[in-house]
Amino acid sequence: MPPPISLPRLQSHLEALSAFGRGAPGQGITRSCWSPAHEEARSWLIARMKDAGLTTWIDEAGNTFGRRGEGGPTVMTGSHIDTVPQGGPLDGALGVLAALECLQTIHEAGIRTRRPLTLAAWSDEEGRYLGLFGSRAFAGRLDPRKIPLVQSADGDRLVDAMTRAGFDPMEAPKARCDPRRLHAYLELHIEQGPHLEAQRIPIGVVEGIVGIRRSWVAFTGQPDHAGTTPMERRRDAFLGAAEYALGARELVVTRGSGKSVTNFGRVELAPGVANIVPARARLLHEMRELDPTVLARLERGCAAFARQVARRRGLRVKIEPLSRSEPVRCAPRVMEAVEQAAAELRLKYRRMPSGAGHDAQMLAAVTDSGMLFIPSRGGRSHRPDERSDWRAIERGTNVLLGALLRLAG
Question: Do residue 319 and residue 333 come from a single domain?
């Protein structure tokens, strides 16, 4: 059995990283990729990697790496250090710092492994500009033609953000890996849901990660006077958007798998004043599902429904795809390594899907990939009060350590 990780050191690292981008009390952490707070956090992380005896580097896509050992194909582990706006201290950060703690424990114990171990902190996982950007580039899934076109929801261009941070955005595709240099990838993450806590199970062994479709659905009508235009003559783009939102939700609930989910995270209206009938309404629509056949069916169904709404209300509609990731199944041998490590520590575990997207799904395109979850307190995530018990963090990190040693030999 490997030596236990140092929870006090891991706790200190988590608390230190959470200071980068922290807002006023109750406002959480905002550390978007390429921002000054993110780049300061990156510098801090590289220093901690060096303290742990790792060789460090940054690739063209802004991914940060630390490596222990040389030789053949490497076992990778990690996550991301960027956050959603007003997020919590654990999403992504725990996976990076738990991996760092594991590699430092191995280094300090003088444990030799047949395969090298590599820690990765992937860039822009949360998708301020392009979801899973860094791991997408690493896996060879980044289309260079799209780089100049990518921008955040508030209009900040990816090329400008990367340039401000000292990167050449058009060089990002050069981050593509050689899959022959990879042996496996394993990522620790908080569950971001209520299931493990409700069932009092300390370890979740992820068996698959949902596919995600994000798009703008834009309705265009006619801007008429809101006081003088009869109700029956109006071509109100907002009413089309509202009908679509309610109907698309019902479609996903009734025609999905029972675990399909959908969300409308942003609504934009124009001209956006009280005395003009809305001429344009734009919705940011997202769908998630583990079964690729079901996901494709829902995508087609929602597009057809949008066209029906537009015809019925005398509107035009345009669907602009933003990003898409495909559902993936985790590698059996990675799942088995996690289960064996949990069993050795006499910890209960269950296999479960991931309803959130993660870098592990991009890594699945180039190597055997897997994840393990620990419980989230109250199922909360992507909010300032995101928490997991320290005991849960310690257990999960020790399981990660055991699984990495099994995979690395």
Answer: no
